[in-house]
Structure formats: C-alpha cells, structure tokens
Amino acid sequence: MRDFSRDHRWLSINTATVRRQGDLVAIIEACARHGVRAVSPWRDQVADVGLDRAVRAVRDAGLDLSGYCRGGMFVADAAHRAAARDDNRRAVDEARALGAPCLVLVVGGLPQFSRPGSAPSKKLADAHRMVEEEIAYLLDYARSAGMPLALEPLHPMYAADRACVNTMRQALDICDRLDPQRSGALGLAVDVYHVYWDFELEAQIARAGGDRLLAFHVCDWLVPTTDLLLDRGMMGDGVADIPAIRAAVEREGFDGYVEVEILSNRWWSQPMDEVIATCIARFGTAV
Amino acid sequence: MRDFSRDHRWLSINTATVRRQGDLVAIIEACARHGVRAVSPWRDQVADVGLDRAVRAVRDAGLDLSGYCRGGMFVADAAHRAAARDDNRRAVDEARALGAPCLVLVVGGLPQFSRPGSAPSKKLADAHRMVEEEIAYLLDYARSAGMPLALEPLHPMYAADRACVNTMRQALDICDRLDPQRSGALGLAVDVYHVYWDFELEAQIARAGGDRLLAFHVCDWLVPTTDLLLDRGMMGDGVADIPAIRAAVEREGFDGYVEVEILSNRWWSQPMDEVIATCIARFGTAV
Predict the structure, then answer these.
(1) How far is Cα A181 from Cα B216, in angstroms, rounded to an integer?
(2) SS3 call for A68
(3) How far apart are CA A151 and CA A163, in angstroms?
(4) By C-alpha distance, which of A182, A235, A242, A246 is closest to A208?
(5) Are B148 and B214 in contact, with CB atoms under 8 Å apart?
(6) What percent of chain A has pLDDT over 90?
(7) How far, in whole angstroms, is CA A254 from its chain's centroid?
(8) Would you place residue B250 in the very low, low, confident or very high pLDDT band (cuts 50, 70, 90)?
(9) Residue closest to A215 by CA, chosen among A58, A5, A12, A60
(10) Residues 6+ apart with CB under 8 A from A176
C-alpha cells in the first residue's frame, strides 16, 4: 500500500468538491498552487468556461486528469433516447480532448429522473436492461475513441433518481457480459461513499482486479447524514474505513490517482484554498 | 396474488406509523375501530403502557400480531454485550407474551451506534461477525421459546448506525449458515423500503422461499427523500413498485398480513384516524 503520509503526489481533486467557490479555471489554478497534480472535472463546469479554454487551462497548469465526470443517464423513453446517445458521444469526445484516462458513467435511474420529460415508470428492471443496452452501444464508440468507460455503482439511495447500478456485484456482472475479454474498455469507478457499506466489497474488489479498477474516489460517510446528496464528509470525519478500502484496491494493482470528491453544502461554504488544504492534510492522515 | 382491492383483511398496521398520535392502547383501539385485524407493536410503545396492559389490549380488541419490533442491536463492545443479550432474551419473552408470530431483528451497525457507550469502531467486518454470532446465540433461546426470528435487511444508508445487514443476499447467507435445515426458526422480514432498489431482489425472494419469508412490510420511497429516517412515503406516493414485489413474495407462498410501517414526520403530524384511513385506502390501490 502506498504511503500517503509524506506527500500528496497521488491526490486528485474532483472539481465538484469546490464547485461553488469558483469556475473551472479558478479551480485548476488553485490546484496547481497547492501542488495538486491531477483533477477530475465535471461536464457542466467545462461547458461553463468552454471546452477549448478548459483544455488549455489543464495543459497550462501541467495537470493530469484522473477521470471525466460524467457520461450516463442512459435511461430514457423513446422520445429522449437519441438525444441521450448524442449527449454521451459528446462526453466521450470531451473526455478525449481533455486527456482524461476514463469517462465516468452515472447510469441513471427511472426515466423521469434520468432524462426529465421521459414518461414516468417504476420498473427498475426495465431501467437495468436499458442501461446495459446503452452502455453496449456507447462502448463501440468509446473503443474507437480509445476512451475507457468507468461504470460507477452509486449508493442504493440514488437507485430511483440517479443510478440504478448500486453494487460492485451488479456493475461487475455488467462488465462480464459486455466485455468478457477484459479488454480494458470497460471497468469501474469505485467511490468509498457509495460502496463502503457492502458486506462483499472486498470480494468484489478482488473480482474486479486491477484491470477493471479505473478510478478510485474518496470522501466519508457522516453519521448522521442530513442530506441525501449534499452532506458528504471530509475524509476522517465519518465512519468509512477508507484506508482498508484503499488497501484492498491497491492489492489488486491499482496505482493511479486517488480522487477526492465531496459534495457538501458545508465544504462549499468554505474558501477554496482552505478546502483544498484540508483535502491535502486529510489525504495524509485519513486516506 | 391476493386481491386487496375489495377489503383490507390482510392489512396490519405497524404501530410506529402513528406513534406520535397516541399510546399503544389508543392505536389498538383505533385499528379495531377501522376493522384492521392486525398490528405490529414496538417495544418502547409496549413498555410505555406496560406489557400486561398491552397484552390485554391486543386480546380485548381481538387483534392478531404480524410481528414484534424489535430485537437486535447485536453489535456491542465487551462491556455492553451481556446487557445486549439480556435485552434480546427479554424481547423474545415479550413477543411470546403478546402472541407475535415472529420477532423482527434490526441487527445494529457499528458498536458506538448500536449500543451507545461502546468503544467506537469503523470495522464493519467485525460488526458482521458479531451479528452472526449473536443471532446464533439468541436462536437457541428463541427456538426453545418457539419464537421465529425475522432478520430484516435495512437499507444500506443505515449500515453504520442501525443495521449492517443490508441486502437479501447477505441476510439469506446468514440464514443458510445458521439454519441450513430451514427449520422455520430463522427467516426474513422483507420491507420494500429497504430492498426495492436491489437488482437481484426477485432472485433473492425466490431463494428465500415461503418458509423464510416471515414478514412483509410496505411503505414507499419518495423522490426526493428529505430525511434519511423520517421521510418514508405512503404507498403510492413514491417510486417503489410495491405490487410487483408483493407478487414476487406471494409467488413463494407468503400468505400472511402485509404490514404498513411508515416513519414520517409528515404522517405523524396527521390525525391518527386519518392516517389509518389513508393506509386502508392505499392498501386497496397501491399495494
């Protein structure tokens, strides 16, 4: 297991962590200032400054990317399916332009939430089928673009509205069916917030293996959690056994950036430099 | 699948659903008034009126029980373990005195939340082990008392503080190990709120089979959900496909009471008779 106590060379900042405090260019400059070597930007933040400017800002700062957030929201009714496909191909193109190592996929839940305007449904099994079909469809395009897809299982509390892929087992079953040859074109983004609770987490990390572990995200689960979306914790403030999960991931050979992604009203109300400094400090003590 | 559109003979009211509106005796009387044939009381509500009075009230109203809530909170440090065991044996005794068909088990999460005062830990794997040891221990006592134990997988958002058994698969693995002969002494309480999201829910219901399906609880998952504990929805107000889940359970032979358990600040602020009347109405249209 890598020693993170001496420096933060393997820290990446997911730009959602400080999204309220400045635009993408400001975040990139702040990361560079703090010696952070990598970021993982969100599409809307890229769109706000323009793709070309985002590409230039990343290059000028000399940053790596640890991922690009995000493609997905695959579940749609027939009237919204073509737009969803176009949208996802554009996400692949943007990820490639930015030099991302993978495109993170948040797959969507029921159609009325995944692609608003879609006819409502309560049939999660239909959503599961559509997710798999649409990943298969996008995978062809992503392969030709050389862009690996990182399927992110989201916490089950998001099953209906954000992602109906909710466990490592479920995500790996999909990988096994769509990429049985383990080509590297399809793998997982593992976020401790979403998976820490799973009794078979270690077994499924081992099942994934290094070649399917494309991204590793950290934050913490607070007790109590006061908001389902925007009360994620700084590493060390909650109950997730982050070092143990990192150890399991690294045992399989994962040696990439560890990405801090914290969606939190509390941390969004702090100055950007203070949040980044705290991420760096906790990276050395709680990750 | 049973037809619930014509009467509510298979409705049971979990007494937590109207816990703020009156004591257990008042709830029992209201249920009897509405022609509800069964209830599932909570231990603290029984304690508030006294066990003897609760037993009499149930008998005088001619009600069945569909379960007794709840034993568990098995995870404790060494200093709190004996008290936890005593507490659980008392829960079995109370369930028997009340004529409950099963004691529902909410197994506890990390020790500092499960049995406050216990030394804190982040080791869910230790909690999993302790839960299984303690269920095994209680099972001997429960068998001799003739009281089936209904292990309830809770939604993963409660893994740290309420129950570290979070999926049907995990719960059934425990049943397989502790009661391989399927004696009937150990089974599941299936609550749609906790399990509706699970991609393998139907498969695990089939794996459980009728002999391990000891209790079936309904309410609904609201989008958005504004509170992790107290924003459960009335059946039909959310996104859970309750009739499909009931169909799966009944396919395995479940033919008992369907228990409405809604923990909700919103419904707790309505008059008791109105809540019960709404449960009855929705039972016929959304269950």
Answers:
(1) 42
(2) strand
(3) 10
(4) A182
(5) yes
(6) 100
(7) 16
(8) very high
(9) A12
(10) none
For residue B109, give both structure tokens.
């999460």
**Is the bond preceding A70 in cis, omega lying within 30 degrees of 0?**
yes
Q: Does B225 touch chain A (CB under 8 A)?
A: yes
Predicted local distance difference test score (pLDDT) of residue A161: 98
Yes or no: say if B222 and B263 are a contact pair by the CB < 8 Å rule. Answer: no
A170 touches chain B (CB under 8 A): yes
Q: With an 8 Å Cβ cutoff, are A241 and B122 in contact?
A: yes
Of A195, A116, A96, the C-alpha closest to A151 is: A195
Measured in whole angstroms, the distance separating CA B82 from the mean position of its chain's CA atoms is 24
| Maximum alpha-carbon separation in chain B | 53
What is the C-alpha to C-alpha distance for residues A86 and A89, in angstroms, rounded to an integer?
A: 5
Distance in angstroms (rounded) separating the CA atoms of residues A54 and A24: 7
Q: Is there a contact between A198 and B156 if contact means CB atoms under 8 Å apart?
A: yes
The pTM of this model reads 0.98
* Chain B environment of A123 (Cβ under 8 Å): 241, 244
Which residues from chain B sit within 8 angstroms of residue A197, using beta carbons? 124, 156-157, 159-160, 164, 166
Report which residue type is found at A127: A
Instruction: Name B129's Cβ contacts closer than 8 Å, sequence gap at least 6.
Output: none
Query: Cβ neighbours of residue A211 under 8 Å, at least 6 residues apart?
Result: A182, A184, A187, A253
Residue B177's CB: how many other CB atoms inside 10 A? 12
The verdict on a CB contact (< 8 Å) between A156 and B160 is no
A138 close to B (CB below 8 A)? no
Shortest CA distance to B93 belongs to which of B149, B145, B24, B39?
B145
Quick check: B41 and B94 in contact, CB under 8 A? no
Pick from A235, A144, A130: nearest CA to A191: A235
Q: Do A154 and A194 touch, CB atoms closer than 8 A?
A: yes
Query: Do A223 and B167 lie within an 8 Å CB cutoff?
Result: no
Asked if A70 contacts A102 with a C-beta cutoff of 8 angstroms, the reply is: no
**Amino acid sitting at position A160:** A
Under the banding of pLDDT at 50, 70 and 90, the label for residue B24 is very high
Q: CA B42, B9, B171, B176 torsion: positive or negative?
A: positive
**Contact yes or no for A160 and B221 at CB 8 A:** yes
For residues B127 and B110, what is the distance between their CA atoms, to the nearest angstrom?
A: 6
Which structural domains are found in chain B, ordered by start?
11-286 (3.20.20.150)
Question: What is the predicted pLDDT for the residue at B168?
Answer: 98
Compute the residue count for chain A. 287
Q: Are strands B103-106 and B149-151 parallel, antiparallel or unpaired?
A: parallel
Taking residues A249-254, report their average pLDDT. Answer: 98
Provide φ and ψ at A278, rounded to 5°: -70, -40
